[in-house]
């Protein structure tokens, strides 16, 4: 790694054991993708509400040459995480999956465009860096994150745009790992 990782704690009483857990996960990322240039981790307990108790949010920004991968495990979106270590584990698991997928794309192991599905952008949201839903010709909805868009910027994506995508199974169901704007 070109620069040391940063770990930020917000509204969380961090202890050496938790920090060691985060650093162990960071070391695993370095083995998944040896060309990491930096990792920034933010562990936060948002102001809690009466109905939800102590939930934790973990955001991980992984910098690789020419790109940045972001995982933001918000408890409202990804089933509440009341255990800090589970929240950390799940966020790093998602980052490792993204790094492996990126490696497959970079090595050309992901099949070319002719094997990709076709869909139309149905909805977009700028929350959490940007995400949206595609609809297939069969009417299925497929989630995609702004990091999945490979041949354009997030600002270039518009509702109604025809896209090609590579689908995978995510934690919440079908999601697009790679989205190419036609």
Overview of the structural elements:
The protein is built from two helices and nine strands. With 182 residues, it is of the alpha+beta class. It folds into two domains: 6-107, Ribosome hibernation promotion factor-like (Double Stranded RNA Binding Domain), CATH 3.30.160.100; 113-181, Beta Barrel (OB fold (Dihydrolipoamide Acetyltransferase, E2P)). The strands form two sheets. A five-stranded mixed beta barrel has the order 5-6-7-9-8. It has a four-stranded mixed sheet with strand order 1-2-3-4, covered by helices on one side. Strand 6 and strand 7 (141-145) form a beta hairpin. The longest helix has 24 residues, at 84-107. The chain is globular. The model has no long low-confidence stretch (mean pLDDT 84).
- Calculate the mean pLDDT score and round it: 84
Share of residues in helices:
10-25%
Strand order across the biggest sheet? 5-6-7-9-8
Oligomer: single chain
Extended strand count: 9
CATH structural architecture of the largest domain: 2-Layer Sandwich
Number of helices: 2
Structural class: alpha+beta
- SSE arrangement, N to C: EHEEEHEEEEE
Straight-line N-to-C gap? 35 Å
Strand percentage lies at 35-45%
Bulk shape: globular
Instruction: Please give the domain count.
Output: 2
């Amino acid at each position: 790694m070109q620069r040391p990782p940063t770990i930020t704690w917000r509204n969380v009483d961090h202890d050496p054991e938790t920090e060691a857990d985060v650093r162990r996960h960071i070391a695993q990322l370095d083995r998944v993708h040896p060309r990491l240039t930096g990792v920034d981790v933010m562990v936060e307990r948002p102001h809690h509400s009466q109905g939800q108790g102590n939930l934790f949010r973990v955001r991980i920004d992984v910098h690789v040459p020419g790109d940045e991968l972001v995982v933001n495990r918000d408890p409202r979106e990804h089933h509440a995480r009341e255990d800090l270590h589970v929240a950390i584990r799940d966020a790093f698991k998602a980052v490792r999956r993204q790094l492996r997928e990126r490696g497959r794309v970079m090595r050309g192991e992901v099949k070319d465009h002719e094997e990709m599905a076709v869909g139309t952008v149905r909805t977009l949201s700028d929350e959490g860096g940007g995400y949206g839903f595609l609809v297939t010709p069969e009417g299925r909805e497929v989630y995609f994150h702004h990091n999945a868009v490979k041949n354009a910027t997030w600002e270039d994506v518009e509702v109604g745009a025809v896209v090609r995508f590579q689908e995978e199974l995510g934690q919440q169901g079908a999601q697009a790992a790679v989205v190419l704007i036609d």
